[in-house]
Amino acid sequence: MRATHCTCVALVGGACLAAAQQFQSTPVMGWNSYNQFGCSINEAKITQAINSLSSRGFVDAGYKFFQLDCGWASRDGQRNATSGALKIDLQSFPNGLLPLSNLARSKGMKWSMYSDAGFRMCDPQAPSPVLGSLGHEAADADLFKSLNSEYVKCTISYPALVEPNPLTVVVDDNCYADGSQASQNAPKGSRTDFVTRYTTMWKELQRVGIQGMLICQWGVPYSTSNGLEGPVEWTKGISTSFRLSDDITTGWGSVYRIYNQAVHIARSGQIGPGHIADADLLEVGNSGMTFDEQATHFAAWAMLKSALMISTNVAALSNELVAVLQNKDLIAINQDSAVKPIKLVQRWTSDRDLWSGDLANGDIAVLVVDLSNARRTLSLQLSDLGIKSADVKDLWTSEVFKNTNSYSKQVNGHGSLALRLSNIQYASGPGTQYKYISVSSGTLASGASTQACAGCVSSTKVGNLGGSSHGSVTLSNIVTSQATQTVKFDYINCEISYLGGGSNERLASIKVNGGAAQTVSFPLSGYNWATDIHAGYAVQLSGFNTQGPNSISISGVGNGYAPDFDRIAVVA
Ligand SMILES: *[C@@H]1O[C@H](CO)[C@@H](O)[C@H](O)[C@H]1NC(C)=O
């Protein structure tokens, strides 16, 4: 049902926010200029992109939102003297932006703009010469509306509390960068003003009837009096979607970094219609990844219920990559009305990941990702999902295998099984019985320490595991009935990785009964080291003695830190 006048769904600062529920409730699909052009866009490039999307079938496939990223606004540091809004760069866009918006709309697309809720937009030049919208949100919302925009991507890329004199801003401070180059620009620190600044922009967009807004804050936590809150929490009610991570870039490492950051967000249960976690633009079509890596990247983004924003030269895409991007089954999963992202079921470190997620009709989306980066047979045992049998559709080949309990095929390095399970028969019978052990009850060595942990079941956790002193904890006298088993870990890892390094995981070195060390990856669990626990993380370990007492010892890998641990559970 479409509201014809203001129907209050939320009050922010006394203003009625009417329109959010009218924006599409499933992830946005479209094209964004950034990964192809950076901030160097012009009329000819944008015209060609619009025409290519249309002629190659992308609009019909559902890629409707055409989004201009940075580069559209004037670099003269001035606002429009007539309207008070940001000025369009008339050197790059001599006819303004309305003819381009009209062209896109004539092809069945929806227009989308980018701005910044801070003083400056990000820009490759440091300090940035391009103004942002702070203090001028109303005029800029009017400008976006005059271009018939329906969706706005919004960052906060300038940290100063008062408008700085660009001449006095150090290069490193541009866009809150902490690197030596502007291309590394992204805030890496939590801030207290995210909510107020984005709320102002959101309200002005709602006022003019622009109903969709992406908060593009790179997965940075908000600093509250109760500690840090992740964007899945702080963006609620002031946007239709939020970026869950720092920017994507070329290469598989970036896909792995971002999807590790998605793990805790998918588990939070807070993603759904109207509150969508955006894993950033697609790199499909760009250099840096093999075909199989690009296909896995696309399947992961589709199943995580991320926005699907193509960001490449569409005219130059191979037919094979067009087929990946226009895969109807994966698009159907992405656009599923339940908007439930796949969750990481189990990671076999350096071997494979198993993800699964519920769909509105009771089917299940499954993604198995090769982590060995070698050609191999990749297998799914449905019992790992608590399923006895199902019909399995391979979404890359469209083949359906009826009433099966497993599925295997050959894949190349970082390839994947992208599957849809239907006609599902769940396994019955008693589940595995687990016994919990507080890690704080273990023997600590070499600097490992117990620390207060408000959210821990044990009320304390063990930290400082690993590092250069190689802190460790050993749990002894463990009795268990299985030699090889899935051990469960309740852990905390809040070390966020940004562009330029890191994978959003901490590695632990784990030994059972003093045997061979196994390296285990623990993805980011949140932002708050006292509360953001990943409970029940499944790790396959072997070497247990079913006849007598066992020990488990945990340390770091190299000089790196392991996560902090609350409890572990072994099979009773
Ligand atoms: C300035 O605003 C006026 C009035 O809205 C508009 O016609 C003009 O195109 C704008 N100029 C630029 C450079 O954005």
Automatic annotation (TrEMBL):
Pfam families (alphabetical): Melibiase_2 (PF16499), Melibiase_C (PF17801)
Protein known as: Alpha-galactosidase
Family named by the database record: Belongs to the glycosyl hydrolase 27 family.
Catalysed conversion reaction: Hydrolysis of terminal, non-reducing alpha-D-galactose residues in alpha-D-galactosides, including galactose oligosaccharides, galactomannans and galactolipids
A GO term, aspect molecular function: alpha-galactosidase activity
Enzyme Commission numbers on file: 3.2.1.22
Residue ranges occupied by any Alpha galactosidase C-terminal domain in the UniProt entry: 350-421
Any one GO biological process: carbohydrate metabolic process
Entries under InterPro entries matching the protein: Aldolase_TIM (IPR013785), GH (IPR017853), Glyco_hydro_27 (IPR002241), Glyco_hydro_b (IPR013780), Melibiase_C (IPR041233)
Residues spanning the signal sequence: 1-20
